[in-house]
Amino acid sequence: MFTGLVSDVGTVVSVAGEGDLRRIAIRSSYDPAGIALGASIACSGPCLTAVIITPSEGGCVFEVDAAAETLARTNVGQWKAGRRINLERSLKIGDELGGHLVTGHVDGLATIVARDTVTGGAWGPSERFTLRAPAGLAKFIAEKGSVCLDGTSLTVNTVEGDLFSVLLIPHTLQVTTWGERRAGDALNLEVDLIARYAARLSEARE
């Protein structure tokens, strides 16, 4: 489990393999001594397993495998060397739950339709992103509810059909990859866990 609070921005070093399995090496500032082999790390949304950890200057390079389901549902198949990705270590019992409960199981891809600057204060402007959710997932997104986009826990501002908007404050833009995002980008979307199960129970009753 995760919280959607990004703790590092890593960089893809290499991508090997093709077809239904990719081996991805990611450079991070994480202390290699604190990552056990087999540890789960959220990499811009999807929960991936560290299969190799190599100490490196300033941190480590860890390697993960992305299989068919991950490649089909996420943007991982588009990753190339040099891409920056949001990282989060798994939640420990007793940790502060500052975002919302995130599983790292991506439901699909949301596409940025527009990015608009909102007048800011002394710390810089905020940015409002309008996104389009896949038709089958739009029903799980509610105004003032939570979504996880590229591994970041965000509050939904508005919902209109399959369109929804989120507001990014200057701090989040600086410490995540959101500052690089533009209209047309496809982001990993995980809908709120509670919303998913509430909808499933409602369908079962019907």
Please provide a brief summary of the model:
With 206 residues, this protein is mainly β. The protein is built from three helices and twelve strands.
Walkthrough of the structure:
The protein is mainly beta and 206 residues long. It folds into two domains: 8-89, Elongation Factor Tu (Ef-tu), domain 3; 108-205, Elongation Factor Tu (Ef-tu), domain 3 (Beta Barrel). Helix content is 12%, strand content 45%. Strand 7 (108-121) and strand 8 (124-132) form a beta hairpin. The protein is globular. The two termini are 31 Å apart.
Q: In terms of topology, how is this protein built?
A:
Elements: E1 8-16, E2 22-28, E3 40-43, E4 47-56, E5 59-66, H1 68-73, E6 84-89, E7 108-121, E8 124-132, E9 146-149, E10 152-160, E11 163-168, H2 170-175, E12 186-191, H3 193-205
Antiparallel strand pairs: 1-2, 1-6, 2-5, 3-4, 3-6, 4-5, 7-8, 7-12, 8-11, 9-10, 9-12, 10-11
